[in-house]
Amino acid sequence: MSFKILALTKYGSLGGSSRYRFYQYLPYLKSQDFDITLAPLLDNQYVTGINKGSRNFTNVLMSYFQRLMRLISDRDYDLLWIEKELLPYVPAWLERMLIRNIPYAVDYDDAQFHIYDYYGTKLTKIFLAHKIDRVMAHAQLVIAGNKYIATRASKAGAKSIEIIPTVIDLDRYSIKTDGRNRAFNIGWIGSPGTSIYLRSIQSVFETLDRQQNCNFTFVGAGSLTLGNLDLTIKDWREQSEVADIKSFDVGIMPLDSTPWEEGKCGIKLIQYMACALPVVGTPIGVNQEIIAHGVNGFQASTLSEWTDYLSKLANDPRLCVQMGAAGRAMVEDKYCLQVTAPQVAQLLSGCI
Question: What is the mean pLDDT of each run of 10 residues along the chain (352 residues)?
């Protein structure tokens, strides 16, 4: 029996959340007789634009119109598989009218509810603070990227909740094997919007720049500058991201401490670990689960800890190899598509 699913992603394939939570699952799901139609709200052109610091609001309005028309006219599906919400800043009651009698599963890789109840304007908080709770409550299934999101879904009264972490495809990630015969390369991968977290440990980089033989390579950081530090900034490209990560000697994930960060899924750490790199990250949210302190990396809470742990790794290549191997093993066991794809297939089929 073929299941007909309309996957309503937020972005095209260049959007990280859509790529990891939806697009990479398609080959496996299709092999299991799922008939899936993709319908992103915002296309790759939009994603490219926001990564360059520009937004075309005319295109956004057109995207909203196209999604509305699709939901009104095209209803021959067994299930809607929705990323976060149908239409940002549109009330939940209107979304339910558009869905009508089609069951839906909704997927979250971040704390989307905080866009409305924590960061929103006064007006947004009045009208939309509980929007995501209502979306969750009426879903056949809520797929949560971590416990923080799952807890919110439970409080919202969701019928069924499953935690599926954001993962990588092992077939794309090979292990870093070249030895170190150059400066210790501290690496980060992300987007211009998340590169702000690097500023929080700028003083750590400056100290390491003075005391250690270090390079700093940031992939996808846009036009980021950090004082007078000599940074290597590379554009993110799907075709080269694994090779870029393998040029690192350690992967880092600094975070701020706000409710938004509590809901993040830690994909950067998983990418680094998939390449057998040690990791250092702020122990916020799921980072505390992914980083086994002293085993596959270090949890750094203070600036002095960041400096100490990165210095330790810079001075001990053998420890880097040991921690990298432990990280790769964890990814193979828990944080890869090869483990989660059958789980997602079973969850979606259970909604129909």
Answer: 89 94 97 95 88 79 93 90 97 93 96 93 94 98 98 98 98 87 92 95 97 94 93 94 96 96 96 98 97 98 98 96 98 98 97 88
- 292 contacts 153 by C-beta, under 8 angstroms: no
Run of H or E including 106:
strand 104-108
Separation CA 9–CA 122 (nearest Å): 28
Domain check: are 68 and 143 in the same one?
yes
The answer on 326 and 205 residing in a single domain is: yes
Instruction: State the pLDDT at residue 241.
Output: 96
- Report the Cα 215 to chain-centroid distance in Å: 25
State whether 119 and 239 are in the same domain. no
Q: Which two tokens stand for residue 92?
A: 């939940």
Beta pairing class for 297-299 and 279-281: parallel
Q: Cα(150)–Cα(289) distance, rounded to whole angstroms? A: 15
Helical H segments across the chain, by residue range: 16-21, 26-31, 44-51, 57-73, 92-99, 113-117, 122-128, 131-137, 147-156, 196-199, 202-211, 241-246, 259-262, 267-274, 287-290, 303-314, 317-334, 337-349
CB 141 within 8 A of CB 347: yes
Domain that residue 289 falls in: 170-334
